[in-house]
Design goal:
The structure holds two protein chains of two kinds. Helix content of chain A is about 40%, strand content about 25%. In chain A, a hairpin with a 2-residue loop joins strand 7 and strand 8. In chain A, the strands form two sheets. Chain A has a six-stranded antiparallel beta sheet with strand order 1-6-5-4-3-2, sandwiched between helices. Chain A has a two-stranded antiparallel sheet with strand order 7-8. By secondary structure, chain A is of the alpha+beta class. Chain A is globular and about 65 Å long. In chain B, strands 13-12-11-10-14 form a five-stranded antiparallel beta sheet, with no helix packed on it. Classes of the chains: A alpha+beta, B alpha+beta. Chains A and B meet through helix 2 and strand 3 of A and strand 5 and strand 9 of B.
Chain lengths: ~180, ~240
Amino acid sequence: MNRVGFSMRSIVVITLLMIAFSVFARGVYQTDEAFLAEAFNDEVPKSQVVWVKGDLRTSISDILGHRYAGLRIRYWHKDGRKAWILEEIGKEKPITFGIITVKDKVEKVKVLAFRESRGGEIRYPAFTQQFDDAKLSENNLDRHIDGISGATLSVRAMTAIVTLALYLDKFTSQQS
Amino acid sequence: MNRRMRSLHRSMGAVVALFVMMLAITGMMLNHTSELKLDQRYLTWNWLLEHYGVATVEADAVFLLDQKVISQFDKQLFVDAQPVTQVQRPIIGGVVIDALMIVATDNALILLSPEGEFIERMTSAAGVPPMIQNIGLFHGDPVLQTRDGMWRSDFLLEQWEKISLSGISWSSPQPMPDSVEVDLAEYFHGKGITVETFILDLHNGRIIDRFGVWFLDVFAVLIILISLTGLWMWARQLR
């Protein structure tokens, strides 16, 4: 009887811990302003926009696997470094990513806000550093990104959004 | 005894006959749902939609911008009855400048095209003052009331100057127009109640919730009783 009581308590404690972990995984880890201030050493340049239309819209749809919900994308550009704040839905809710690109390469990727109940592990540097120095290769990343068990959709969203940032980096470079 | 049983049998028979007919007719209809396309036909009688609780919807906030109805349901922003984007915070107002609809939350401006397409979400990272309390217009320019004071910009919304003005027409919530509410009710609840659902609920009694189920239980007991009284009279005749 004691063993049954003990195992029931264990199940309850483990369940509560799992719920607590998933709740704590949600939140704003860094504000957009703080990310930009960090990216540009507190000298944030004026933002610019790229309009999502024509062939660009088609390419973005191919990268994301769905139509981009928006007519323009804002970015910040200074001394060859571009900062992108982009959102993509993991499973049901949007995840906000901050990406810095330099000369067609990824310098840094951060999860700024995570709203899903599962998959928050993608915010850890151990995962995000896989994207360091990533480049575009025929509108895909030039490398394989290892997944995380239980965070497949979040990993997929992050991979797609980093690819999009690299594509936009290239597109805006060609435009200027 | 036999006469009393016959009288009871007749009384119960009259009551039961009506329900048996109803069950038989609805049962036959359900047997031929596909052929009769009962699952593709919709009933939109107001009393029925209200009975099923799908006649109305209640938005968290509604603003009328130009000819468009902007509403929020939980974290979804709608233009008329079309979902356009997710918003994490409650919308607090909206204005129209040039060919742009601007909807404000406390920490962002959501830009929409005149057709209601989502353009962009501008936050303080793009220069928008934080802690927004209301949005209005002053001589065609957008004005924000924030906890930190009043700010005015132009149609680009990128440069904001602190001001102190009076005579601003502030945005205020409006009631949902009936026509859009009907469309939104259709968006959330479908085209109405399918004939199949209605007939099925008539058949199993659930049309009047749990009372219908108990009612049919009573009816089932009546059928058992009428069968028993019938069998009893038949047995007596054989003797």
